[in-house]
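Input record (one chain):
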Amino acid sequence: MPTRHPPVTHLLYLHGFRSSPRSVKAQKVAARVAQRHPHLVWWCPQLAVSPAEAAKHILQGTADWPRDGMAVIGSSLGGFYATWLAASTGCRAVLLNPAVHPARDLARHIGAHAAWHDPAERLHFQPAHVGELTALDHATPPHPHPERVLAVIAQGDEVLDWREMAARHANAQQWVLPGSDHALSDFDHLIDGVFDFLGLA
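The corresponding structure, as predicted from the sequence alone:
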């Protein structure tokens, strides 16, 4: 059963690599918050390409958030950051097809990339960023309350291996979806459950 007390008062959404707060899932979560939970403190920051800078920004932005009243939703690389933040703070987390070996996987993507939501914007993923991901991974302890974590894992993910996600988050609650895809194109069918898990039905 999801942990419902104390209630969530602060909600953070972390997007994936090359993504932004304009992602479909981020926008759907933002709309749900605005429509049904306007009392929530809501934050969906644009994350730096540098993992070290992204982590610093996340820590600074949540520094005064109540640990028992905050929750994070993270997608793909944002799921990796959410894993680190939740493990460090003990807060509730929903991980959407979370990256579990980003240093290994993104080492193949060093160079310039177009941003998904603004092709004119160029992102430069550098060799040093791989080391920053490794350092962040090593700095992530086991979550002190794994029952507060939900991993949503699509077997049809064309980017990440669902078996690695399931193994990495074996102690968390899991929704393993047959089919679906990396973007969770069926998120409309999942969002109610995500909010219910966070005690925000």
